[in-house]
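Quarterly update, task 2.4: manganese (II) ion-bound model.
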Amino acid sequence: MKIRVLGTAAGGGLPQWNCGCAECAAARRSGAERSQDCLAVSGDGRAWYLVNASPDLRTQLLAAPELAPAPGTRDTPLRGVLLTSGELDHTLGLLTLREADRLTVHATEPVRRALHQAFPVGPLLASYTGSHWHTVTPGEPVELAGGLRAEAFALGGKRPRYAADLPGEGRPDRTDWVTGYRFTAADGAACAVYAPGLAEWTPAMDRAVAGADLVLLDGTFSTADELAERTGGARRSPGMGHLAVRDSLPHLARRPGPRYLYTHLNNTNPLARRDPPRAADLAAAVAAVAEDGMLIEL
Ligand code: MLT
Ligand code: MN
Ligand code: ZN
């Protein structure tokens, strides 16, 4: 299995265009920028899938040699997109893919509905390309090209703000607005987990990371009060669907084995810096911060 980490920042990126905080200012000075959370994964190194479609997608694709078309053709190695949520930082890039000959998008039922009604990317894309939407059901693996298998697991019911009033919600308690994916290849010999929106550490997350080689997980905030402290607002990270790094680290310590990498870092998070101040805490837990452009082979 090959994984190209395309982007590692939360919505807004680093620096965020309208933010002059210490982290954003440092990123502007040093050029140590982070683009918005997005991943490419392949079972055989030839057929590739995007996981999420960030607003920075065009630049991210151009920086990934594996995703270039074959010379003299428009044959792209990109076989489809899997979504972990319907959030704008995970879906705006779908419109960037409209030049595709055809496009398959895998999403859970509520995310698919949000992307056809509240934010109608589905109908918009259909005017440009032959798009096909496949409904993802947590616990039911999807067999993808190149020997890649993706199994979604439900992570929570936090819906995007633009979909707050989406009508026709069959099950108000549904927990598949946000999912993680467990990818396996080579008949289970390689396993990677991707969970950029982890509201709390659940039994499903425990099951997903058991036996995994690599876990890319939610590193939005270092602490639950980080955003409130930085912005003077009242929003705490648990209510925003993001378990703080400080609160997930004890779970990683309980589950040694995989390589843990934090991603989806908000621009308020000191861990997003080039030389993060509390990196030693992570190292003690055998975790690190993911970087844009990383290529990981399992
Ligand atoms: C999130 O990760 O919670 C969302 O992407 C927030 C946002 O709308 O930027
Ligand atoms: Mn986000
Ligand atoms: Zn900032």
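Highlight for this quarter: The first strand starts at residue 2 and ends at 7.
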